Amino acid sequence: MDSQQNRVLVQLRDLILKGEFVPGERLAEIPLAEKLGASRTPVRLALTSLEHEGLIEQSPSGGYQMRRFTSQEIADAIRVRGVIEGFAARLLAEDGASRQLLRDLHDCLDEGDKAVNKPEMGLDDYAAYVQMNDRFHQLIMQGCGNVALRRVMDMLDGQPFASPSAMLPMQSSMEEGHQWMKQAHRTHHAMVQAIERGQGSRAQALGEEHVEIARMNLDYALERPELAAELMPGMRLVAGKTRP
């Protein structure tokens, strides 16, 4: 994914989380391109990615529209993703990761450090982190060598807010968002360390813990509706509460 397409994807995802669109609203390429100051091609590709993430759906009249989903759908998918990614990390730790895979993972860690280790994060920093984060999780899944796990993960990526970067908070949406992203990236470092040291149980536990950032963002919005209306108004797309 090139930088312009990634930037447009980040902007559109953020607009959804901020409640810019209502369920059933049609998302047309030309108005969106004008709104974002981009050409139609990256907007079209970004919409395809958002459909794959389960945030939007095809419209009966053509193109795409916003969809509504339940908080339980999101919570269940997030939990299952943690279990799958944790097991994939365990397999890598126990079976051994290739030198090339470890180099690629360390490249991701370096890119993430550059994005989050600064006083403030701008849109370009956020876009860079999202791109790195997606690649990091893809490397874990591809590197574990378990085809069945990858197939299940592909299915989960189609659930709303369940993809690795869908629930990452932007600093403009939540004051502590930057700190949460730093914590998430510290977990990336710990996962790679556990894989390198062959610590399967630790790698699995870290993988399962890692999705807590996404779950906390969901709980934050559902448990504090008066604040969520201002900070994450996109949660109006979510119907119902999660089970205790």
Describe the structure.
By secondary structure, this protein is mainly alpha-helical. The protein has 2 domains: 3-67, Orthogonal Bundle (Arc Repressor Mutant, subunit A); 70-239, GntR ligand-binding domain-like (Four Helix Bundle (Hemerythrin (Met), subunit A)), CATH 1.20.120.530. Helices cover 66% and strands 5% of the residues. It has 11 helices and 5 strands. It has helices at 3-17, 29-36, 40-52, 71-95, 99-116, 123-143, 147-156, 177-196, 200-210, 212-223, 225-231; strands spanning 26-27, 56-58, 64-66, 69-70, 238-239. The chain has a 3-stranded antiparallel sheet with strand order 1-3-2. A two-stranded parallel sheet has the order 4-5. A hairpin with a 5-residue loop joins strand 2 (56-58) and strand 3 (64-66). Helix 4 runs parallel beside helix 8. The longest helix is centred in the middle third of the chain and has 25 residues, at 71-95.
